[in-house]
Amino acid sequence: MNVHRLPSTVHRLAVLAIGTSVLFTGLQVLADEKPAEEITAANWTKAVGFAPDLAAGADYEAAQGLDASNWKKAAAWIPDSLALLVEKFGLKLRTAGYRPIHPSTGYVRATRLNRGKARVEDTGKSIRKKGIGGYVAGLPFPGPQNALEVAWNYHFNYLGDDGGLHFGVFWIGAERGVHREEEWRWKYISRAMHRTDIAPLPEIAAFARRDIQYASLASASRPYDKAGTTALFYRFEEPRDQRGYIYIPNMRRTLKLVFGTPGAPWNKTDMLNEDVRGYGGYPEWSHWKLVGRRTIVAPMHANVLTGKDNAGLTFDFETAPHWNPSMDWEPRPVYVVEAKSKFWTSPYGKMVLYVDAETFYIPLKEAWDKKGRLWKVFINAYNESPDMDTTPPPLALTLAVDVIKEHATAIPTYGVFSNAGLKSTQFTETANRKGGR
């Protein structure tokens, strides 16, 4: 309780009280209030989310492995969609023990200093009205109380202020195996505004003047007929369409485009734009419902061997269904959130997101069609951060499985970096034409 606010609080109580007993009851409540615990890296889990319920997994053993023959011994921690991948498609879960995760010291500090400033704004059916006010930096809603606060925590979760990824994309059929492959290099400024780690703080002025919150530049290096194709786009602070440019080398032309249209496939894969990283849109673009809190197994310390030469070890391309990954799964605390798109163009009836309560990443997602059938299951796996005080957990792989068509898109990580101090001048039309060099 803030002492300097006590007189005004007492005055309000006195005005509203009917009788002395009511006044004293109100004062007793105030006297019993405890100040919010200071947010630190050490108490991050308790201060902003919650820990997994390890008591519910009495039969769960680290390093035992779960498959179609024994997964039910950990059934309390395995959502139905994950059980389907295990039973129908032979996914094996290499089990590990829970380990907590906290973001960088800069992000923790920003969360502590700005706690209580952010507020959710009601946007109703609007897709253009901004749905958050007062946000400065860090996690906007420690200890979220509703689905929208969880969604905003995801939107502003800790990815570092910038970063990059070298990755492959594999198109896979359950019967035919890998039938197409691409290789990409991607760099991004994840926080042009609301920065916490890398100067300039709190924003890159050249981008902030244009309301740009995020900048992305991705370039294909394989196959040969696509090599040099480069896409530059910007995401804005306001819920506007993402805009940018694509350079097509064999045409020697740059096309100005709108990126990330809800309902459109991402790069002709099994993922839609709203599936990237778990949810690729603005929080304002969906209706949200908090289903509950639970513990599930998820790959947040996946122990995946990254690198181009290890793609065949990361995913079992040789054995049907040709997409199963090899990685560690651990009990994780998650918020279970349902999202329904406000766009009629989205083919999804609903999305169910399992949002990690420490990182606010989405390691598991389900997408349902408009007939009420489970359509797709998405897995985002992360490796251990080399230094949690300075670096976010690196993305290890993404897997999107169409359980109806029995087809998948596998995305292994070949290389990753974070907080490199990327400049706004590296995200221009000229850089786009040069293929991101």
What is the topology?
Layout (H helix, E strand, L loop, with lengths): L5 H11 L3 H13 L11 H5 L31 H10 L4 E2 L9 H9 L5 E2 L11 E2 L13 H9 L7 E11 L3 E13 L15 H4 L3 E11 L7 E7 L5 E7 L4 E7 L26 E13 L12 H4 L13 E14 L6 E9 L7 E6 L4 E9 L12 E8 L4 E12 L10 H5 L4
Parallel strand pairs: 1-11
Antiparallel strand pairs: 2-3, 4-5, 4-16, 5-6, 6-7, 7-8, 8-9, 10-11, 11-12, 12-13, 13-14, 14-15, 15-16
Keywords:
9 helices; alpha+beta; single chain; two-stranded antiparallel ribbon; outer membrane lipoprotein receptor (LolB), chain A; globular; 437 residues
Describe it for me?
The protein is α+β, with helices and mostly antiparallel strands and 437 residues long. The protein has a domain at 119-191 and 260-423: outer membrane lipoprotein receptor (LolB), chain A, CATH 2.50.20. Helix content is 16%, strand content 30%. It contains 9 helices and 16 strands. The strands form 2 sheets. Strands 1, 4, 5, 6, 7, 8, 9, 10, 11, 12, 13, 14, 15 and 16 form a 14-stranded mixed sheet that branches. Strands 2-3 form a two-stranded antiparallel ribbon. A hairpin with a 3-residue loop joins β4 (163-173) and β5. The longest helix is centred in the first third of the chain and has 13 residues, at 20-32. The radius of gyration is 23 Å and the shape is globular. The termini are far apart. The model is unreliable at 1-34 (pLDDT under 50).
